[in-house]
Amino acid sequence: MPRVVAPLALLALLLVPALGFAEDEKKKRKPPPPPPPGIWWAKGFDSGMLQAAREGRPILFCINALDTESANLRLRGQAYKSTAWGEASRGYVAFPCHPGSENGPDGNSTRYVGTPAKTANDALNYILKRFGQSQISPQHIILEPDGDVAFRKEYYTGVVSPHLLRTYLSVVSPPIAFTRASIDREDAINALAEAPTEELDQRVRSYLGQGDGYAGAVVLNLLEDEFDKARRLILIKALEKLPKRQLPVAAYGADERISWPDDEPAETEAWIKTLLVIDRKVGARAAARAVARSEEAALRTKLLAAWDPYGAEESLRATEASLLSGHRKKTKSAPDDDDPMAWRMARAEQKAGLKERRWPELEKAFGDGRPAIVRGALMEADAEDVMANAPFIEEALIRPRVNRVRIAAALALLRSGKARDARRVSAVVINAVFDVVEGPEARAHAVESLGDDPGDTTEGWAQAIDARLKGGGR
Amino acid sequence: MIRRLSALIVAALVIASGVGLGRAEDESMAKLRHKLMFAQGDRQVRAALDALAERIGQEPGFKDAGAFGDWLKALPSGRNRLGPVLQRIGWAYVAMKRGPEAIEPLEASLKDDPSQGATRAYLAEAFRQTGRHLDALKMVATALRTAYDEPHMRETVMSAAAALRKTQEAKDATGLPGYAEGLRDVLRNSRKPDPKLHSTLARWLLWDLEAYDKPTTERGRLWARTAAEHALTAVDTTTELLPASQRLTFDAAVALEAVDKDAYGDSERFDLLVHAVRLGEALADGGPHLIPQAFTHLAEAAADEGRYELAWRLAQKRLDISFSPRAVRLMRRLPPDLGD
Predict the structure, then answer these.
(1) Contact criterion met (CB < 8 Å) for A54 and B264
(2) ipTM of this model?
(3) Which residues of B touch A401 (CB under 8 A)?
(4) What pLDDT sits at residue B303?
(5) Which among A315, A259, A263 is positioned nearest to A290, based on CA atoms?
(6) Does B325 contact A148 at a Cβ distance shorter than 8 Å?
(7) Number of domain units in chain B
(8) pLDDT recorded at residue B239
(9) Which of 3.30.70.100, 1.10.520.20, 3.40.50.300, 3.40.30.10 is the CATH number of A45-158?
């Protein structure tokens, strides 16, 4: 008998927790109630803002602070709760902005069900601090994931609608628009995908003309599953019809081809032509990039030729892009280069909206005192210059705070092979080489001075730097 | 039941030992008093005071430090006006939160020997207990100048500065807020930077800047510059990896934008952003980032300095986290051939 009881007891002991576990699992598997059809408001302000930045979502602020305003009542009572607004806002992180006076006993807003009143209040405070104390209500603001303003319309005139939300999702977050379109426009995508090749261009263009905020994202979805080269070219070309506002979707779709132009030269060319039609500046920039990154002379010539119809400025930009590329790759000369390179470089940088980089002589640079100038001069100074200006550089090495100047000084001294405080030079260089920000550039410069890469240990670097500084330069 | 019993036993033991000690100390108290009354020179006086202070809580007349102070104050023949005795009276009152009573003896003691950093630190705490918060901070600064730097002073400083922030609202300040003015000398005279104090000051300034001013006004710039300086010191002097430090460096860098523009990059902004990115990478350790925007801001600063490769790399890192129109805009400005 005990022989039977013991296994039974053991079985019972094993079964009790297992049954309990099964019960828990059953509870977990029970599906939650369906979410409300309208806008899904973010639960917390800080967590919502972080989610937007991490996931690349636009941020929608629905400023709805006054209780008696009829537009406010209509928006919160009808629009925000509707399926249309709900679906169009799914790609966003959305906040109601309200003083939070309608608190339920659980701390949730009774106005925006399920939203903590604190979140609505925090969102309103953020808006008030950022855009001024007298906010017109109702109004809507859309921010980019990094916080820049994408859209703001004071007072509600009916402009803000599900259509506008879809369009701005395409503008601000093409990857999210791409995903939303695959869900919300599944039927349209399937229908277009089944179109015969001879009708494809006309049907896609017609769809693009219908004013859908996800139009560009629909075509990107088609491209995603299209492997026929001819049909792909048709789709890319048809995007010429894309409303200009949705340009970021096309630029996003083109990026891979433009950055690696030689992988699919025909597609690269098609994308550039399409972008040039939608927006000349963005198209010119894409072409400049493709020209600069292509290793194929034939493609470069073709792309340069493709620019001709678009005016002198873009063509010039293309030529300069190729020159800039030649200069940066340390090619001494580039074809058709009649102007001095420095001048052309400056002009190309100016055109790109960048500050002109002309590092003065070291002594002048130190007199200037601007970290960018000093650093730039130090990084470009040759060993002789460094030795001639050693006192300045030794001083820069111990200058507090401006770390990038300190690093540049240490690298310059390493280049010259002479340093009064070799230990400090070694410490600064090693720190820089293994730093997540300064690392790649510092390593490249240091390796140039040392001759070989000492590898991935600090000891190796310390020895190599020590040998270089003790040897007094090469 | 067992707990109650053990408590009773412990109480009985304590009482028994107290009674035993008391009897032995009655004799020694008289001796100790005698020693103090006839001590020659500061050294002997201090030794006698130390021995007496050990009896606090053990003698019926010394039930706490305050009673000890009262006892010292009542000493005859001018003994109660000796510098070390005055200092000890002040210490005793401060320890019992009787700040107002501690001020007079401590000030008198300082007159006797201004080099006593400890006296200055006690006086600072006495001021704080009396509600004289700015005087407290100033006094701590003078204590630090004498090279007296003990952990208890930090509590005085933090409490006084926090109280000052409440009583003298930053919005009414013409220059730096009162607490920042008060802390400036304290931090300047500290031999070893206190990262927590520096970061607290920077954080308060940034909060007040956000609440009462803008980084573009003259006063706002001053607050932003000061916050940046302290934020950088805070992260430069600690190896601790804290999300709060990353947020602090990033916020300080953002607040410093206008100043940096005017100074052509000669500000702490770039280095603050480097710290924000560096801390972000270390904190995320392959996981999600707390401030993805830090990459974009540093990328822009790098581009402005002509460091295009760095700018590109950072913008690309931002895009690796998620799509960012700001990063894309920056990349369009960079030389077109960049990238792997």
Answers:
(1) no
(2) 0.84
(3) 232, 268, 271
(4) 87
(5) A259
(6) yes
(7) 1
(8) 79
(9) 3.40.30.10
